[in-house]
């Protein structure tokens, strides 16, 4: 059965009234105390001890006396030449003869002017490319098969770049792709000895560079 709280046993209901009554009583006590007992009979605090007196003395200002400047540094002694040294010195003549014939200075050396020859320009592609007279067989007939290549059984194709002028002559040649064993040199020699039909551009002979394959095959 639950317990029921009665009004007499409930202390929280009387808490507010008790707090108000106690606050009023404390204020009344404070007002009465300040009204009827204003003086608490305080005593003056005295500090006992010897007192020291300080005397202020006048300090005389000192005057700076003008001191003389420091003496200059002594000069560094320099040894003077003796009479014997002066006698050994010969002074040349400084007079200029106006009537004397003065030779003109030699002309500056002439600089050797090197004449730089311009490299001929060769076409890469033209209307009519150069062709060896007699065909590729003319080049193949001039090939001397190297003995080293024969013994080693070297076979293959060497590509030579030939520079053919407007007269059909091979001015220069170089290897584009070789096989070695002396075959490259043999191919260059055969191409340089071959006469070409010059290349033409618009009906006019021109300089052209052309690639030529040279075959090396053992029989």
UniProtKB/TrEMBL annotation:
Keywords: Cell inner membrane, Cell membrane, Membrane, Protein transport, Transmembrane, Transmembrane helix, Transport
GO biological process: one example: transmembrane transport
UniProt cross-references to InterPro entries, sorted A to Z: TonB, TonB-dependent_transducer, TonB/TolA_C, TonB_C
Annotated stretches, region: Disordered: 62-81
Principal location listed in the UniProt entry: membrane
A molecular function (GO) term: energy transducer activity
Record Gene3D superfamilies: 3.30.1150.10
Cellular compartments per GO CC: outer membrane-bounded periplasmic space; plasma membrane protein complex
Domain TonB C-terminal: 130-219
Protein family per UniProt: Belongs to the TonB family.
UniProt-listed PANTHER family: PROTEIN TONB (PTHR33446:SF2), PROTEIN TONB-RELATED (PTHR33446)
Protein name: TonB-like protein
Organism: Ignavibacterium album (strain DSM 19864 / JCM 16511 / NBRC 101810 / Mat9-16)
């Amino acid at each position: 059965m639950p317990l029921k709280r009665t009004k007499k046993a409930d202390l929280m209901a009387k808490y507010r009234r008790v707090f108000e009554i106690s606050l009023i009583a404390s204020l009344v006590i404070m007002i009465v105390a300040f009204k009827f007992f204003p003086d608490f009979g305080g005593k003056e605090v005295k500090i006992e001890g010897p007192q020291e007196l300080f005397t202020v003395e006048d300090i005389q200002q000192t005057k700076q006396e003008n001191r003389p400047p420091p003496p200059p540094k002594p000069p560094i002694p320099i040894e003077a030449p003796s009479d014997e040294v002066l006698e050994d010195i010969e002074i040349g003549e400084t007079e200029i003869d106006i009537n004397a014939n003065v030779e003109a200075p030699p002309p500056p050396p002439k600089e050797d002017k090197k004449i730089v020859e311009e490299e001929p320009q060769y076409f890469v592609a033209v209307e009519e490319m150069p062709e060896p007279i007699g065909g590729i067989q003319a080049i193949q007939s001039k090939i001397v098969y190297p003995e080293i290549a024969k013994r080693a059984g070297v076979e293959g194709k060497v590509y030579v770049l030939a520079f053919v002028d407007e007269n059909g002559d091979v001015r220069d040649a170089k290897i584009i792709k070789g096989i070695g064993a002396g075959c490259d040199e043999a191919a260059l020699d055969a191409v340089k000895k071959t006469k070409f039909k010059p290349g033409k551009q618009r009906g006019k002979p021109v300089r052209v560079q052309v690639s030529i394959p040279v075959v090396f095959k053992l029989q």
